[in-house]
Design brief:
Layout (H helix, E strand, L loop, with lengths): L1 H11 L1 H9 L4 H17 L5 H10 L16 H11 L6 H7 L1 E2 L7 H4 L4 E6 L6 H11 L3 E5 L2 H13 L4 E4 L4 E2 L10 E5 L8 E7 L11 H10 L1 E9 L4 H11 L3 E5 L6 E3 L14 E4 L3 H13 L4 E4 L5 H12 L7 E4 L13 E4 L3 E5 L5 E5 L2 H8 L12 E5 L2 H12 L8 E3 L3 H10 L5 H11 L1 E2 L3 E3 L3 H9 L7 H8 L8 H15 L6 H8 L9 H21 L9 H20 L1 H12 L17 E2 L2 E2 L9 H8 L2 H7 L9 H8 L2 H9 L5 H16 L8 H10 L6
Parallel strand pairs: 1-19, 2-8, 2-9, 3-6, 3-7, 4-6, 7-8, 10-17, 11-13, 11-14, 12-13, 14-17, 18-20
Antiparallel strand pairs: 4-5, 15-16, 21-22
Helix pairs in contact: 1-3, 3-5, 12-24, 12-25, 13-23, 14-15, 18-19, 20-22, 22-23, 27-28
GO cellular component, one term: mitochondrial degradosome
Main location: mitochondrion
EC number: 3.6.4.13
Length: about 725
Amino acid sequence: GEVLKNLNKFYKRKEIQRLGAENGLDARLFHQAFISFRKYIMESSSVSADLHIILNDICCDAGKVCVAGHVDDLFPFFLRHAKQIFPMLDCMDDLRKISDLRLPPNWYPDARAIQRKIIFHAGPTNSGKTYHAIQRFLSAKSGIYCGPLKLLAHEIFQKSNHANVPCDLVTGEERVYANEEARQAPHVACTIEMCSTNTPYEVAVIDEIQMIRDPARGWAWTRALLGLCAEEIHVCGEAAAIDLVTELMYTTGEEVEVRNYERLTPLTVLDYALESLDNLRPGDCIVCFSKNDIYSVSRQIEARGLECAVIYGSLPPGTKLEQAKKFNDPDDPCKILVATDAIGMGLNLCIRRIIFNSIVKPTVNEKGEKEIDSITTSQALQIAGRAGRFGSSFKQGEVTTMYRDDLVQLKEILSEAVPPVKAAGLHPTPEQIEMFAYHLPDATLSNLIDIFVSLSQVDGMYFVCNIDDFKFLADMIQHIPLNLRSRYVFCTAPLNRKEPFVCTTLLKFARQFSRNEPLTFDWLCRHVKWPLAAPKNIKELVHLEAVHDVFDLYLWLSYRFMDMFPDAALVRDIQKKLDDIIQVGVCNITKLIRASQAAAAPGAADVASEDFTLSRTKRDGKVASAHQGAKSPEALSVAVEAPALRRVRNLRVSQSGTRQEHLKSYGRGSLASRLLREGLLTQEMLRQLESEWQDQHRNGRYGLGSKRDEQHSSKETGKKRK
């Protein structure tokens, strides 16, 4: 007991905490080291003789004046123990130098060796800003286009070659040469992560520069902007990024010329909501923010005898293009599009009117935490701007919402100025991690990344990108014996960690790779059970999309380990066949939904004729059902959602028939109904929120008459509480 009391006294002394900080132990590391040190002393059967003597001197009889020892004398033993559990303390100065990210421009000496001209093409969607940059790209002797999506890179690749400007295509999974001899063309269109910072070009185009602030991918735009070796850099994007780009270029000694563009066709925000799917017109696009809403809305549309195209993020690029082609074709009976915000970039669509099914979207913040909030002004403008594209059959665009209560908020969102982009993303390079590993040979890759981020120093214009996905994969394959460089490559593989089948496949790839056994075409076919049949329900369609992602993963790895993934050509062939199979499934998506309904909840299909949109119309301040005694509209969404989809979304939606009564009792029917319908809120969560809300009112934290609310009421209008 006396030892424990003195150890705790040691921990609380400010002098000891200061000494710890001087030796590289910040508050978190100091606490962890002390817990371990205390456990070592209290639970060990014996300790070293010198430590035993110090403890004995400190813990002399309490009644005597003890001058033999002091708790501060424990510090050398504590520091020795801390260095055993945190080896980086011995080389902290070196590690701090390696993780110093304050001067990213110095990482690209080739770019610093030339004087580059930076031209910023700023404007909204459909203003022609990218068009003018591409015209300069096509007229140059050599050039590189860097875009955020494979679809955009493929579009520029085709456009260049059709204009008799030989251009190669480079994405993470694909290399396509303009000439048959597979010689490198002077022009290249690539996804931004794949751009070369060593090859000299006359002109470079960096598209969607505002994505430099993206929590996960922003580092790729920073790398391209600072590192491309081009005489002219044409940057395209929102005006909100002008100030940051100008500041970044000031640090490189380069000036920025800004060219502003206005929208080429008018865009009108309507004064009325759609309110019912019966009011749809040819050229309408309903934008949803969940796959479940996509299924539900498309089912409702086709129940009215209308044909619709469907586009969402996890569909293969080929399927997206086919659905877009179907919707754009004036001779095709398909005149309605149901899509997620995947249409915000990468697809040319002839849309007359954008209809937001919801203005609430799940997002991931800079810390990797999930949030549910209204869409941002930038997102709303990007999506709404797809209506009335210049050169299409519609000379002006329109935008509205599905529900009346969302329309006021959408108008406010669209009227707000886009917040300026304040910082650019950075990511540790393989070389930096290798240097860390040299100093910390026993640390895992996940720990190396953690230590790097904790020690990293960044300038105010930069931030370190979210590395949760990287760490997830690092932990997943940690037990597999791989060299550091190979392990790093596997951890940067582009995959959705929420898809179990894809993650399991990566694990198998890594295991076989570690045994130096090539992953052949036959092995892959056995793993995915190829050939595959057309999907019979939504569950099978989702699995086919996952298999397509597995093929993408194989192709991505094949360009990094050609000898171990030797059959890229064969895999690409069957991926094209799989794309055709998925297209068949998407074209018959309502049949798949009906099959899933029958499997998940027999009889639920009877609800299909109900207009679920009317159930959200407010009557007398309450949420009213379209018909008295009708089944809850949320039951349709739940019935549509097959068990596999529940697992994919990792969310459980209550199917209670009394949901409307719950919503009425909570008085926040509009938002609650929307979140329940989208599967973002459960009845239990709703009850807990209600309880917390009442407690806050009782405590006066959010009193309606408070001065704090009056001051911020205008700012908070339309905002959603998490």
